[in-house]
Amino acid sequence: MQIAFLVASEGVEQVELTEPWQAVVDAGAVPHLVSPSGGSVQAFHHLDKADSFTVNRTLDEARVEDYGALVLPGGVANPDALRLDERAVAFTRGFFDAGKPVAAICHAPWMLIEADVVRGRTLTSWPSLATDIRNAGGSWVDERVKICTSGKNTLVTSRKPDDLKAFCATLVNELDDGGR
């Protein structure tokens, strides 16, 4: 199974990309880095530049039907940039429309809000997004990881890098269960 990791060209929180990526690899799936532009993406450790990662497919090349699930890493700048790209928003929404699992951590639920897929869903995030989630029709909870199956797909969300162990384990479990 191929898993899409959608990130902006700059600003993804490195650990929120690399730890779920490794968990997906360890589970026997194939992660693909998807971004608006080709080449590489610049990751960050909070506000400091970290490593660069090679893009596997651009948003113009990636198709929802090629993937079994979507992972949205956080970082403040990453989802803020992505939500301004209609291709990224449509790609994200496509996983919900297709009933495929989506996992988002930290500030990544901004993409879910922009894609208009949080209405009636319960999720967690970095605490500063709580009002945004509520205003978009979702319910926000302060939990390490939240699984929501009240929609067409399974949605896994988590708050921050400290929650990555639980987030990765839940992500892998949902992939093993086929998202339901």
UniProtKB/TrEMBL annotation:
A Pfam family of this chain: DJ-1_PfpI
Keyword terms: Glutamine amidotransferase
Superkingdom as given in the UniProt entry: Bacteria
Protein name: Type 1 glutamine amidotransferase domain-containing protein
Domain DJ-1/PfpI: 2-173
InterPro entries hit by this protein: C56_PfpI-like, Class_I_gatase-like, DJ-1/PfpI
Organism from which the protein derives: Streptomyces ramulosus
Family listed: Belongs to the peptidase C56 family.
